[in-house]
Amino acid sequence: MAFWRSIPLKTSLLFTIIIILLNASYYQHYKEMLIDNQKDKMNLLFKNIEINVDETATGEKFVMDLIGQNLRTAAIAAKLKLNPDISKVTNEELTELKQQIGVDDITLFAPVGDDFVGLKSSDPKELNVSSKGWDTYYEAFKQLYALKDVNVGIGQSLPYYWSGPVDTATTNPTELNIWGYYYDGTTNYIIDPFVHNKTLRKYQDLTGVDDAIDRLLKDNRHTALEIAVLNSDKLLGKKLPVKNPAPSYWFSEREVLFGSYEYRDEEEKKYAESALARNETVFYVTESNGKSVMKSFTPVHTDYLKYNASSGVPLIEITSDYTEISKALNDQLRETVGFMAICTLIVLLLMMAILWVFKRNKALALQDVQEAYVGNIETLFQSVREQRHDFINHIQTIHGLLSIKNYDELQKYTNALVGEIRVVGELINIKDPALIALMQAKLTQADSLHITCEYDFKNMEQLKLSPVRATDMIKILSNLIDNAFDATLALEEPRRKVRVTGEVSNRQLRFSVSNTGPEIPEEWREEIFASGFSTKPKGKNSGLGLHIVKQLVARYKGTVELKCGEGTTEFSIVIQF
Length: 577
Prior knowledge:
Elements lengths: L1 H5 L2 H73 L9 H11 L3 E8 L2 E7 L13 H11 L10 E3 L2 E3 L3 E3 L2 E11 L7 E7 L1 H10 L1 H11 L4 E7 L1 H4 L20 E4 L8 H11 L3 E7 L2 E9 L15 E7 L1 H81 L3 H22 L4 H16 L3 E7 L8 H22 L8 E9 L2 E9 L28 H11 L3 E7 L2 E9 L1
Parallel strand pairs: 13-14
Antiparallel strand pairs: 1-2, 1-7, 3-4, 4-6, 5-6, 6-7, 8-9, 8-12, 10-11, 11-12, 14-15, 15-17, 16-17
């Protein structure tokens, strides 16, 4: 339990957030990739339908133009056979004539008031049929009867002739016909030969849109649930600017022109309008017929299927099964969660290992600190015990000098004692316990070696070091002082001098240790920091002191500078903290 408490909360939270973000990003990328793949498949289906619609439109227009031309020829032939006055033409005559000119039926339309009515016909259901409900056809009749070239935006216009696209017969909602209308002013009626669309339907069954949709659905059963070519005006409930709307059962008035459209939803109109406004494919995901589906609406630009000059372009609607994508996403989500759990476990294990190494290194560092402190404190305590012993002797000596009233000697003796007390007081003002202990120990050592050791420390109260850094600083300074002591021992006692300075300024710690004694030769100055190198006799020094100093200074990105001259050697250390 203690270990878990030792795990840094912020670090753990940061790692967890990073892992979650990475996995969420990957999951989102995977989701977008699946959706884009599905969109590409649906776009491919649309392209196939669009190509088929275009090819079908081209083929059917060619067939329709041929049928239209044949109907015009049949109308001219009928004109030559019939009386120019409609009142002198009989229905029986038209029945016989239709077989002669090769059409299914013939109707004659004549103006009655503001209407054109089928007054004579070979088909009894066509008799007395009004054209006022055929908005575009009615306008074509008026232009044709006025001997104008018919221009209503759709159909085939030839001299004295016009035919519309295939559409539903008013007299028979189950039947689709192709009508031709001829009037050259030589009769008082419009001749309307027409054929049932059996020939055209046979052509459509072989090459048309419905056949293409059936084949695409069969070949792409895992992608598409349905494909439909929709009358956008009817889907969106748009009212076209017509005076006499065609009956709702006409083919041109159907909402679904080809295919099937069973997967309806409440938002379909919004997305259909968006597709038309943006003139591009619009995708969206919705629920329909108890399924999660992806739908698309795409405008298809063609004059084919245009029954009114102001009609909107048809829309191709494709519905695909989104449950496959959802299943793949759920599988990926499970994999992502599993992957995240494994990563989290690995991170925790790594953190445990890092914490173990950190605590181990920290323990070793604290052990070094403790050993350094204990050694220096022990030296300090030994010095204090010696000074306590000396203090008793000093008191006795002062008492003796007072007893014999030798005041001159008493003054000299107390002056020396004041100097020692000042030294102790200056050390205490350093503020850093480790440094105080070190300097007290080294001063005692210098005294025993008959070395004059001077020191000068400034602003040391600004030095705020962790136990590890404090240990490293003590190692650096003690190695330099020990080397300086060793170097002065080659001199006579009065010439043995060592000076230690330290200063804290602008977050920099500066140490310098100088000593009298033999100068370091020029050729050695690059080698003295190498491990094992020593100028002392073999066995006297390990040659590691300056190497340790160099390594520790480098650890803190500090610098070591050596100066030699006039019988003095000085090492300067600069460290950022």
